[in-house]
Write a structure and sequence with these properties.
Elements lengths: L6 E5 L4 H12 L4 E3 L11 H11 L3 E4 L7 H6 L1 H21 L4 E7 L26 H21 L3 E6 L1 E3 L12 H15 L3 E5 L5 E2 L1 E3 H14 L6 E3 L5 E2 H12 L4 E5 L14 H7 L7 H21 L1
Parallel strand pairs: 1-2, 1-3, 3-4, 4-5, 5-10, 6-9, 7-12
Antiparallel strand pairs: 8-11
Length: 316
């Protein structure tokens, strides 16, 4: 598909991944981009969705808007995480179908995978069990939207696609310790501890679980490829295929932030899913996508960006 002349709506386009996706689409030559803001369009309200579609007249909808957060945020707001993500997605898909949108691409989540999925996670294992409890409401909401896209393809011939994106990190991430994911939280903790000359940094859990991390600019490139090439409603994993223990991640961040103190794990706090690592074969086959940025390269760029932002705040 030649997307350069298409009218494209990117929900969540002002968010972390969204900003990078919009920049990538502009690099690809896309000129007709609409990024709806929540102050103007409430995507949990059907009338606002209809108004957005009538205003922007999109031929392609890229749905990145989501209510997201780390383990703590998911534990404290399970109802909100389920309702907001489900209602935004299901109504946007339905109204896109009714208004003749040519292609709908949704960013899913690997939180949808069962808690004890064999590593590496294959897309075929998605329905083999219940998600990890701490983020199950969010994962299940996204899982239902996958089913909706598959059902709409079968019944209506609606072109809906879904990419399951692994844990993202990079410049522009959320560094709020109450709502952030593991990498920005650890970066901020280590830098602040270094600046205070703290003797130790406390880290939730045992450090034993593994995760896979994808630099956000690689993710944006994958989304661009999916818009151009993906033609199946069945989900496609987007990641690096590299598994990293949390303990190793923490020590790498400590090294890169020049924090010299101790790392103290808190085993009384939840670990989350035991292991996460994706089989990225289908992304390579269907999209020609392979991640280009290593974890350490991406961490160095992210730390430099965050410290730059902190310097600007102090200067102001």
């Amino acid at each position: 598909m030649d997307i350069t002349k298409k009218r494209i709506v990117v929900t969540g386009g002002a968010g972390f991944l969204g900003q990078h996706v919009v920049a990538r689409l502009r690099q690809m030559g896309c000129r007709h981009l609409t990024v709806p803001r929540s102050a103007q369009y409430d995507l949990s309200t059907e009338t606002d969705i209809v108004r957005l579609i009538k205003d922007a007249k999109p031929e392609i909808v890229v749905h990145l808007a989501a209510l997201v957060g780390g383990i703590g945020a998911n534990r404290h707001n399970p109802g909100s995480f389920l309702y907001k993500n489900l209602i935004m997605g299901t109504q946007l898909i339905e109204q896109s179908r009714q208004h003749g949108v040519e292609k709908f691409l949704m960013a899913g989540t690997i939180c949808a995978y069962p808690k004890h999925t064999p590593v590496p996670f294959k897309e075929s294992a998605l329905w083999d069990g219940y998600p990890e409890e701490t983020n199950a409401p969010y994962g299940l909401a996204k899982k239902i939207l996958i089913t909706q896209l598959q059902a709409y393809k079968q019944q209506y011939g609606f072109e809906g696609n879904n990419v399951l994106i692994v844990n993202l990190f990079g410049p522009g991430d959320n560094f709020d310790l109450d709502t952030s994911h593991v990498i920005p939280a650890l970066i901020r903790k280590c830098i602040e501890a270094r600046n205070r000359n703290d003797k130790a940094v406390k880290v939730w859990g045992t450090g034993k679980p593994t995760r896979e991390f994808l630099y956000v600019e690689d993710a944006a490139r994958a989304v661009g490829l999916a818009i151009e090439k993906l033609d199946t409603p069945d989900p496609v994993n987007i990641g690096t295929g590299v598994e990293t223990p949390i303990a190793e991640l923490v020590h790498t961040i400590a090294k890169l932030t020049r924090f010299k103190g101790a790392i103290e794990f808190e085993p009384n706090q939840p670990d989350g899913q035991p292991r996460r690592c994706l089989d990225v074969t289908r992304a390579k086959e269907l999209l020609g996508f392979t991640a280009e940025t290593t974890l350490e390269q991406g961490l160095a760029k992210t730390i430099a960006w965050f410290e730059g932002q902190q310097s600007k705040k102090l200067a102001a």
